Every structure is written in C-alpha cells, then in structure tokens.
Amino acid sequence: MAQDVNSSKFVIGVIGTGTMGRGIAQIAVIGGFTVKMFDAQDGAADKAQEFIARMINRAAEKGQMSEDAAAIANGRLEIVDSLADLADCGMVVEAIVENLDVKRKVFSELEGLVAEDAILASNTSSLSVTQIAAGCAKPERVAGFHFFNPVPLLKVVEVVDGQLTAPWVADKLDAIARKCGHDPVRTQDTPGFLVNHAGRGLYTEGVRILAEGIAEAHQVDDVLREGGAAFRMGPFELMDTTGLDVSGVVMESIYEQFYQEQRFKPQAFIRNRMAAGLLGRKTGKGFYAYEENKKIAPKVAAAPTDLPDAVWIGGQGHDGATILAEFLKGKVEIETGDKPSARAICMVAPLGRDATMTAIDLGIEAERTVAVDTLFGLDGRRTLMTTSVTDTGVRDLAHAVLAADGGAVTVIHDSPGFIAQRTIATIVNIASEIAQMRIATPEDINKAVRLGLAYPQGPLEFGDSVGAAKIHAILTAMHAFYGDPRYRPSPWLTRRARLGISLMTPEA
Fold it and tell me: Going by DSSP bridges, is the β-strand pair 289-291/294-296 parallel, antiparallel, or unpaired?
C-alpha cells in the first residue's frame, strides 16, 4: 500500500515542465505537497520554477493567498537533475510528449528507481493507459491522471483506470487531486477518456449541420449560445479557439479508435480546412475572420417588419404548439381550425422532424409552412426553419412576427431536429452510452463535462431538464429520417425514457 498522501513525507515527482507539467507542479505545492520537478531539456525546469513562482506571487498580490503561504508554497518546489533523484517520491506523474514508446521507456526506468508502492501516473490525453502500463513489470500501479489546460483554472482531473490498475492506486490519486483543490472524476481507459469522449456531440453534430447546408457556422453558434441551451461558446467558436489542427485531429482520432463508430463521425471538409491553414485564431482565419485576435462578427440583415394576417398553428403531439400559441398571443390573429384559411401562414413545432415532412403529414401546403423550435421555449433566440419550397414572402412574414418583440431570430434550411434539438439530443445520447458502457458514473459524467468543458449543465442533466422522452423522440425521428446509426438511441436512454425516470438512475 502506498504512503499516506497526507503525510509531510509524501513527495510528488513531475516529469516534463511544459504547460501541463508546470501547472500540475503549481497546484501540488499550493496543495501542501513537496514537489520534485525534472525535465531532460537543459534549463527548462528552471524556467518553469520561475514561472510557477510568478503565478504564486501574483495570487498573493491579488489576495487569493497570504504572502507567507506563497513563500511556503514556493519553498516546496525542488528542481532535480535526473530521474534517479525521484526515488523517494510516493507518486510520479509524467507530462511529456504524447509518444507511447517514450512514455513506456520513462516508466520502465522509473520502476527500478522508486519504491514498490509508489504510483506511476500519466497525464496523457490521447494514449491508452493500459498500453503505457504494458511496458511495466507492475502495471497495476500505473494509472492516468489527466488534467486540463490551464491546470490551475480548470478544477477537474480524470483518474483513469487501466485494465490492470489496482483500486488503491485510483483511490490515492483521488485523494491527491482533492488536496490539490481539484475534483477527480473516475473513468475507464477508453478513447478520449471521459471529457473528450462526452464532448464529441457538440462538435460532430455542429459540423454535420454545416456539411448539410442547413445553417452557417455563426448561425449554429448563435442558436446554441443564445437559444436557451446557453452554451458559453458554440462548436465553431470553440474549434477556432482551440485550433482546428487540434480539434480536427481529436475528432478523427476518437472516430478511428472507436472502430468508426458513427456517433463520432467527422466530416470530410474539416480535413480540407486544416490543409488550407484555416485553423482559427492562431492563423487569423477559421470559421470566423479575426483582427488582432478579435472575432469579426458576420453582418446580419435586419428583421422584416410586415406581419402576417393570421397564423395557423399545427399540433405535433407535444407541448410545442401550446408554447408557440402562447408566444404569438396578442401579436397576430391565431387560427384554431383543423385546416388553415387561405389568408394564414402555417407554423408548426416538430420534435426531431423536418418542416417538409411535417407539412406533408399534416396535409398542409409546404409552400406556406415554416417550423419553429420550441424545445427551450421562446424567451431567447428563436430558430425559424423553412420547408424545401417555402415561399420567401411566407418566410419573411413568419420572421417578422417572431421578431416583433425585438427578439433575435435565426432562419435556417430544413433539418430534422433544427439545430438545438439534434445537438442536445446527440450530446445526451453519447453521455447515455458512456453510462451504459460503465465507463463512468452518471455523477462523474456530469461533473466532468461541467468542469472540463464549461457546459451550462452536464449532459445527463440536460437530458433530465428537457425530458428523456423528448430526447428519445428526437433521436427516434432523426434515425427514421436518415437511416443513419449515429442517431440510434442508447439503451440507457431508451429504458429510462420508457420508464419515465431520471437519466441519472443507476442500474439496480
């Protein structure tokens, strides 16, 4: 059994002093650990120590810690000259190059230096912990300890169990993480671990929407940021911020590592944009153009102002029609008959379906039909969707009445599930499958996504707030329309939707 992490004699070793390594060392010394830091590159560790000292002293200047506490924390950091100097460490974490052979070599050497009960941890973000451990004589003491950049600000760390990792190892890493002020989430050793795995839906569905010509990149971002889902950034803003050379590679990697699972399928245009150097902020142009690292917002035309004579609202077997009718009350005459009069435009509120098929099923003219997304209500940005043949005059009249109170409206082409419906449903479905595969607990899935990706809610929380039955209905309708297995509902979601219970409900 490993040393007591609360003991003053417990020492942490950090190998690699780049952005991640220095971040880990910083939170560890602030958390009360003695840290020994090593880097094979001459002078790199010294520069990292200087950087860490500046960060800690800056925190003291801001009143986030006392000057005495800052001095003590700085005094806990030691630079060492070789791996042999890490022999007394109770845990060593590597944050070096993402190369399997290199990591295996380092861990193999460490094994002969540290105590038999010392933990060997990898900060890898993309490599299999099990495969790293396979080069060790004692793979049971090897685990993943994956932080996120910037480490001091993103207060979550993935504790990754390899196939042979002993339970006590992950338990000790949990305790170390908490002492460092971070929330640990436990996950099995699968591609993308937990955060990158659960975060696929936002990106993959965003690029699918763009590939189908349903909406422009800025429209997708606007809807997901302002339309009730309340994301801080949409998928294309995020990819521009991270850099498509990173985001694109991760999309392709996870897709391939899951043996081309359709839920993670990227789109071909991503690779072309990478080849063209359209990487985002770092190149000055991505899905948006940038000047002095500031996004140039696309110009949007003013909303039409001429209102329709009347609006007929089509029922869809859920509360969408009621939400739409309540919103339009007092703004325009609402027709309530079985069929619209000749003077009315037709508004429908489908769930998971497109406007064209909805009009056909209701027996109304597609030329004078538009659809409105009511999944998150209509207090925020509204999404207006046309059929394949909607008259432009009808579109403009519908736009005008939706914008009559000054609210923003995004007009998109026909799409099963609009933008928000299909994106949220995909996010919830992937998280449900993670729970079904026992990769992580429902609680850790939500925590990891909230803290690691800054989503307004965890994915299963999203599903519960919208309603599991609605999410299931959206996916079922999309699966029927496309015939694409990417939209098949997870068994975890299907069972809980049918039972009418929370997506957080564990197996009995």
Answer: antiparallel
